[in-house]
Amino acid sequence: MKTKMRLPALVNTAIVFLMTTANAFAASTSKVFVSKLGILLFLGFCALVLVVQLIPALITLYGMLKGIGKEQEKSPSRVKSH
């Protein structure tokens, strides 16, 4: 008789224990960080770095294309004979 009464008592104890546990407190995500000027300065700096790197690349590409054009003018044209 005692063993039959212990099982429901253990289950009830476990249920009460689980119901009384505290909630987990996570960090709130409702806070919005506003840093407009800092973000704009950072993105402007990144754009400036990209433009500074792009200018020599375009100059080199122009020189390469100009050199290819000159080589084609100097080389004799191939005549296909059939």
Percent range for β-strand residues? under 5%
Distance between the termini: 113 Å
Helix content: 55-70%
Largest sheet: none
Radius of gyration: 39 Å
Helix/strand order: HH
Total helical segments: 2
- Class per helix and strand makeup: mainly alpha
Q: Which residues form runs of ≥5 with pLDDT under 50?
A: none
Number of strands: 0
Shape field? elongated
Mean pLDDT across every amino acid position: 83
Keywords: Membrane, Signal, Transmembrane, Transmembrane helix
What does this structure look like?
70% of the residues lie in helices and 0% in strands. By secondary structure, it is mainly α. It has helices at 2-19, 36-74. It has two helices and no strands. The model has no long low-confidence stretch (mean pLDDT 83).
